[in-house]
Design brief:
The chain is globular. Helices cover about 35% and strands about 20% of the residues. With about 290 residues, it is α/β, with parallel strands linked by helices. It has helices at about 40-45, 80-95, 110-120, 150-160, 175-185, 200-205, 240-250, 270-285; strands at about 20-25, 55, 60, 65-70, 100-105, 125-130, 165-170, 185-190, 210-215, 255-260. It has an eight-stranded parallel sheet, sandwiched between helices. It has a two-stranded antiparallel sheet with strand order 2-3. Helix 3 packs parallel to helix 4 (about 150-160) and helix 6 (about 200-205) packs parallel to helix 7. It has eight helices and ten strands.
Amino acid sequence: MLAQTNSFIACDTPFEEAEAVIFGAPFDSTTSFRPGTRFGPSAMRSESFGIETYSPYQDKDLLDLKVFDSGDLELCFGSPEKALEDIEEHTKKILDSGKLPVMLGGEHLVTLGSFRAVQKKYNDLYLLHFDAHCDLREDYLGQKLSHACVIRRCHDIVGDGRIFQFGIRSGDRDEFRFASEGHTEMHKTGIKGVSFEALPAVIEKLKGKNVYLTIDMDVLDPAYFCGTGTPEAGGATFNQLLEAIIMIGESLNIVGADLNELSPHYDLSGASTAIACKLLRELLLAVL
């Protein structure tokens, strides 16, 4: 893979030497409300130079890591199937080289492509999911490959007992019923707001197991993160999500990860993009 001239800050280690590879999946063809997540990965790269490489939260520095930025994939906007195939193929190349794949979305459907590749390597895979939305619909307007269905499609692959959801506060009745029947372990947002109190117990369950981490950044309250296509009031604070990411990275064997659903042009202040950059920095530092 060729080096990028516009990589995420400090993620310019040569591919052969890297421990992790980040790549963009700029796809938003099934977005159900406001499009624009295709511009998320490139915005994060350009705005990353507004943050430091050093994390005072973890006392770690990106300069000490070996991360390669392989840039954005060129995806077919007219075909979710083809886009997912390309994402899966790229993720497989990263895995076959013994490196950790970290994907930047794009809409949440892109997770399915990366998840497929990771699950084929680690057939005992578990999924840890942070989101405002269930994403458990069987289909959305007749389409089974939609960002509204992505976790349901992941469930099709791994089955019951392997998906853990946090921050959920939106979905149709059937989605919540599906989770309540034991197909996923869902930790909903209550009237008092988001709570990740159950996360330590879930981490204990997942210790020693292979885990894929997917973070839809609309898990954050739109008061903090308004640059997204489907904002939902009542979400997590930045510090809550940051604490969760660090706890997960310190305790679990993360074998694949993604951050998605940044639509930068809905926040002209640039604050949402800055938050996304900081979350990526902290995620890389936590898991490597």
